[in-house]
């Protein structure tokens, strides 16, 4: 596969250079997006937009790595290329929704989205919307929304980007994008390929007489393509059609406590994923209309083999799953002299899921229907004061979902300082696995019902070559009938509703950009304090879980990114911190149930070169600079110090 993709990339570049050189004018701009004017329907909520500078510099990584390093989200991962999820403000991964161009990426089987499968190179805009703010995006979630979008580049002519990375542990990442078009039509075509043996060394201290080992069965291979078309229809209409396909083959490494040898518990995850999104938008001065249709098809297979002397490998798990999801929505928005904004949205989603474990011959085949209507109204009649509300009624299958309502407030003290607040009721229905997984599914689960309130101060300042943005928020939430998987006396796990979970805390976001003569200095920093406690009545006399932090949620997390650009050289430093985390809410806490806190330090240095219509960028990354021995998930080691070299070629 390496040779095939190398041939494709090389052949494409040679052909396109000869075609694209018809136009010899080129301008390269290195912009920094610090903040922008907020839409009226986004008042009262915190929306974190990943800076375009970060998206560009981190284009060779996945979404999980970018969010881990540059957001207040908690990202749970067992290493590069492995299953990775994110959670908001003390909630879980199933409470976090991820969308790509209005198509939900969450697996309807598991309820969560694997962020390690999403290449940053396919994205132009990333927004993180916690709590009530996600409701304005027509998303049903107790945690929040990670909103991903690709955008049209309406420049005329031909542009392309080719990037290639080589890293430690025999890691390779290649990406190619071609854009063609004019003021009425644009086409964007992307190819990508990622591969790594991921066989890094680590010291295994979880077994007697611990020793140095190499990570086994942690390799991965991912490849795919993305095709997007944009059509301008007269002056006020825009039609876009986007398609994304990728194939994944990866090993699932075992626990460090496993002493059965390398020939046992060999687990593999294989999948094909095809996603499409079609959108039509008509917008005039006071009126807009939007139609969305999208689909997500996933075909996956999970295998586990053990070796038996004299017989060879024996298959212990052979699980196949297919899911087909359709997402449809129609939105009408009306603005009255920029003082009032009214929005009505109708939506209908359809899911068909089949899951079968062939060794034990057990599984399920089911469908789910979801739909509803949302109405919102926002106003800025009163000077410096904005307010709004949202109402939502939906259904799933033959059930009527709890009624949802939210209120939003925002007050502007001056042109630099804003106060904002929101209060909301919401819900989350059980995932398909929660209900039907065999063995362990619980068809009697109730929907989780949540209440949340948050508020904060947002300040921004810009003068000459100095830009500053700051956002401080406090939050409180209560979720009744929280769904939690627990072990049973029969030897398997099963989900139950626990009475109540309370979350509260604060988060802070800082962005700073300064230019001194030829030096450009940028800082992006985040901090989150999160309490997420089980407040349920003890189920038994020995249940001491009341008041314990929910598993894997850190109380403290922080990150800092600094970048200095001088002429065509740049240097960046990344710092990450997570406090200790519990892996259980049992009464007895020891080293087997606690993941220690850790600090992570990464460095990157690079230089840009310009010649005619081309820009060449070379860079070197040093990750885990101080070779820290750490874990993100219990008994799943992470790599020590490692390196990667990047080359990017841009035309126009």
Task: Write a concise keyword list for the protein shown above.
652 residues; mainly beta; 22-stranded antiparallel β-barrel; 58% strand; globular; disordered N terminus
Explain this structure.
The chain has 652 residues and is mainly beta. The protein has 4 helices and 36 strands. It has a 22-stranded antiparallel beta barrel. It has a 5-stranded mixed beta sheet with strand order 1-6-7-4-5, with no helix packed on it. Strands 2-3 form a two-stranded antiparallel ribbon. A hairpin with a 3-residue loop joins strand 15 and strand 16 (287-308). The longest helix is centred in the first third of the chain and has 19 residues, at 2-20. The two termini are 30 Å apart. The model is unreliable at 1-19 and 21-37 (pLDDT under 50).
């Amino acid at each position: 596969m390496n040779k095939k993709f190398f041939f494709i990339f090389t052949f494409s570049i040679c052909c396109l250079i000869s075609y694209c050189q018809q136009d010899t004018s080129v301008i390269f701009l290195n912009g920094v997006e610090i903040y922008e004017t907020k839409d009226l329907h986004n008042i009262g909520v915190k929306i974190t937009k990943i800076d375009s500078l970060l998206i560009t510099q981190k284009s060779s990584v996945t979404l999980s790595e970018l969010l881990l390093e540059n957001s207040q989200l908690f990202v749970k991962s067992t290493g590069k290329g492995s299953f990775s999820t994110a959670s908001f403000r003390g909630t879980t991964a199933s409470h976090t929704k991820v969308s790509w161009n209005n198509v939900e990426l969450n697996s309807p089987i598991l309820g969560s989205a694997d962020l390690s499968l999403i290449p940053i190179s396919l994205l132009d805009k990333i927004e993180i919307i916690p709590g009530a703010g996600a409701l304005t995006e027509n998303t049903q979630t107790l945690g929040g929304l990670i909103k991903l979008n690709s955008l049209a580049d309406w420049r005329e002519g031909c542009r392309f980007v080719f990037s290639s990375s080589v890293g430690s542990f025999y890691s390779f990442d290649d990406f190619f994008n071609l854009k063609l078009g004019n003021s009425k039509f644009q086409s964007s075509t992307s190819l990508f390929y990622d591969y790594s043996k991921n066989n890094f060394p680590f010291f295994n201290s979880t077994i007697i007489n611990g020793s140095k080992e190499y990570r086994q069965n942690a390799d991965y291979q991912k490849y795919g393509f993305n095709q997007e078309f944009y059509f301008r229809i007269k002056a006020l209409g825009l039609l876009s059609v986007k398609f994304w396909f990728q194939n994944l083959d990866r090993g699932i490494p075992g626990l460090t406590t496993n002493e059965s040898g390398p020939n046992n518990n060999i687990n593999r995850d294989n999948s094909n994923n095809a996603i499409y999104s079609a959108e039509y938008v008509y917008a005039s001065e006071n009126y807009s209309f939007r139609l969305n249709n999208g689909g997500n098809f996933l075909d996956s297979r999970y295998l586990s083999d053990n070796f038996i002397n004299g017989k060879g490998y024996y298959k212990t798990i052979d699980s196949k799953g297919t899911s087909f999801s359709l997402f449809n929505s129609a939105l009408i928005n009306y603005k009255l002299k920029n003082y009032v904004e009214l929005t009505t949205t109708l939506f209908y989603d359809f899911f068909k899921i089949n899951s079968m474990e062939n060794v034990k011959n057990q599984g399920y085949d089911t469908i789910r229907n979801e739909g509803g209507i949302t109405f919102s109204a926002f106003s800025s009649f009163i000077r410096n004061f904005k307010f709004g509300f949202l109402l939502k009624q939906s259904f799933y299958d033959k059930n009527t979902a709890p009624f949802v309502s939210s209120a939003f407030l925002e007050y502007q003290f001056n042109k630099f300082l804003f106060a904002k607040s929101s209060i909301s009721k919401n819900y989350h229905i059980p995932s398909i696995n929660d209900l039907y997984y065999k063995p362990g599914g619980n068809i009697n689960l109730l929907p989780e019902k949540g209440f949340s309130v948050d508020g904060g101060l947002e300040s921004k300042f810009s003068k000459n070559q100095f830009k500053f943005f700051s956002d401080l928020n406090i939050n409180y939430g209560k979720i009744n009938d929280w769904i939690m998987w627990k072990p049973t006396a029969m030897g398997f796990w099963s989900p139950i509703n626990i009475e109540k979970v309370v979350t509260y805390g604060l988060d802070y976001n800082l962005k700073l950009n300064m230019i001194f003569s030829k030096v450009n200095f940028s800082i992006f920093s985040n901090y989150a304090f999160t309490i997420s406690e089980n407040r349920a009545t003890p189920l038994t006399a020995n249940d001491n879980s009341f008041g314990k932090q929910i598993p894997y949620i850190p109380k403290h997390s922080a990150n800092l990114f600094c970048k200095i650009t001088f002429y065509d050289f740049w240097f960046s430093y990344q710092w990450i911190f997570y406090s200790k985390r519990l892996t259980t809410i049992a009464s007895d806490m020891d080293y087997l149930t606690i993941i220690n806190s850790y600090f992570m330090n990464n460095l990157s240095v690079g230089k840009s070169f310009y010649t005619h219509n081309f820009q060449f960028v070379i860079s070197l990354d040093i990750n885990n600079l101080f070779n820290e021995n750490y874990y993100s998930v219990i008994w799943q080691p992470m790599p020590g110090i490692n390196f990667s070299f990047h080359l990017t070629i841009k035309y126009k």
